[in-house]
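Quick check before the chapter quiz. The format below is the same one you will see on the exam, so make sure you can read both the input and the output lines.
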Amino acid sequence: MSLFYAYRAATRLLGPALYLYLNRRKNRGKEDPGRIGERFGHPSAMRPKGNLVWIHGASVGESLSALPVIDEIRRRYPNVSVLVTTGTVTSAALMHDRLPHGVIHQFIPIDRQVSVARFLHHWKPDVALWLESDLWPNMLTKAKKAGVKLVLLNGRISAKSFKGYSRFPSFIRPVIAAFDLILTQSVEESERFESLGATHVKTAGNLKFTAPSLPADDTELANLREQIGQRPVWLASSTFEGEERIAADVHKELIATHNSLLTIVVPRHPNRADDIEADLIAQGLQVSRRSLGHAITPQTDIYLADTIGELGLFYRISPICFMGKTMCATGGQNPLEPARLGCAILHGPDMSNFITISEEMRAAGACRPAADGADLTRQVGALLRDSATVQKIADAGLAYANSKAEVLDRTLDALRPIMSEKAIQEVDHA
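Here is the expected output.
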């Protein structure tokens, strides 16, 4: 039995275990209890009449990349309906706030054949646009068998994943073969997909360059700026376990020379906030928590922004930003988000999830790496003393973030033949 069919059998046999797993996630706040049925393929909305384009982005990053694609599809194909699926509570909250009126959101079902079949039977999508690398074997192969035209957008395979897939070609080939078209972020990604057996591959560029700036509530922005006043401020964004302590060490070291310094910490997973707060207080720091409605007072050392979907606020407030998941975890977060909002960006040694972008940004003077916590302290301190350099880095970041907007047109143009095969007619708005 090939590994692919072994996977299929395992997902069938492990049904009860998957149910318990999702229930545990629900109890930890990682699943929406009111919509858990969607994870088993039970719809919570009616299917609209006519053609339906289904767009899937696993989490927040992919969801943000999908937004300009959704807008452009609705502009070019006004008679088509759009269904969006995501896999996390955070991305669902983002979609609730940012999807255009009339676009339907559902949680992606677990990759078990009965759940997948239930989902496909109800929604009957004509075209599915899959973002990046969330490759679920049962879903993709059954959608292909059901006649759905499948396209991978912003295709990405990390070096680690490519190495793993290459060891098990019988597993990955049926999944890759499900796609009628694969549009990748780079030539290197195209070569990896072709090595795994893909035949219809094009390099379109990275859709993350087309994502809109993260939003911010104007009233909240004004309130926070008033509370901060003229205090020097820096931000540790999307931090993982261990990086909050590094941020605290930076703060404690620099407070001696910047006696009103404010450090803002935005954890990637806000459900860790209780533990983070306890650790910071144990280090003798004054903490204000956003989720509890605490104000930033003159005594606040650390503002713990433990909420979802508000990064746009803090990128606008802080001129200096450290990207999390680069010191104590691996891969990094999207540096284009703070670059669009005028931040001078620092990051740790591992930006492997955004290796091309981070390398190009460093070459353009749009971000700077820090080797460890001590180096981060040195660099944050230097930038706090040098507003001209902060502005120079920020300007370079904004220029880089705006440099490849043509990716969206290239992507939609490549989709045109797929859409026409399903009799989805494009409207000329020229």
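If your answer matched, good. The chain has two domains: 3-206+405-421, 218-401.
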